């Protein structure tokens, strides 16, 4: 899938930044690929890019409108269709990470055909996956897991990959969601894979490799989330991690989108080890990544110190403070590069 750049990011009329996490993630890791953002009235998210109309973006050289917003169920709101059609009529391709196929909407399909433009459905895989086998394969793997959805698993994996490469390890980021695919150019959206093949898709994403190579795997959902635990478990079994990092947001009381109480970090450590032993008996936790965006710096440092001491693990905010302490843990547990 070749998605033409630069991108024009469409945020729609989403109610908060979490609902625009695709666009924000692209900007955080590939800002040089982006030209501007398009926001509808009532949009409460902001990537920090210049606001543009679709026609201004097209005139400025944008090649693809990226639908950078998400919602429960991955639907395409009816009031967004007009903007997508306008982009196609302005000469832009359109790329989406939603569950619905762009071409399944007649107005969008007709506009793409009329203008000879490409529709990219990143969440729909073109690869046929086998069922997972659980066979031990060479290489080392780290998986980001979470106490909830949208707590920073993608950022943790990306930051860990960068920190390990900076330290001299050979590592690669394995994208398991639509934003990660936009950022890395390779991967598969596991929440769109048929349930029987999720673990097989995870094996495909993190294949046998050189024994010294580390694959850093983006996590999905949470083992404790009643909506998404299925994809989380399949990813855990298929990725066969040697190590995992627990990702957490400290101000939440319930899981996103449901009334289920948030599990503790220890709950997640224990459950991940219990379930992960099916395909890797030596699985272990190597650190805790906390999204401290809602805390000031002193509060964040105090919280990290408290959590790290409680669990006997390095605790950090990947964005604020980096991943060096967790890389130190990798060196201590598995050896220097």
Automatic annotation (TrEMBL):
InterPro entries: DgcN-like, DgcN-like_C, DgcN-like_N, P-loop_NTPase
Domain of life: Bacteria
Domain D-glutamate N-acetyltransferase-like N-terminal: 42-124
D-glutamate N-acetyltransferase-like C-terminal domain ranges (all copies): 129-327
Family matches, as Gene3D superfamilies: NAD(P)-binding Rossmann-like Domain (3.40.50.720), P-loop containing nucleotide triphosphate hydrolases (3.40.50.300)
PANTHER family noted in UniProt: DUF1611 DOMAIN-CONTAINING PROTEIN, GLL3100 PROTEIN
Entry protein name: Uncharacterized conserved protein, NAD-dependent epimerase/dehydratase family
Organism name: Roseibium denhamense
Organism phylogeny: Bacteria, Pseudomonadati, Pseudomonadota, Alphaproteobacteria, Hyphomicrobiales
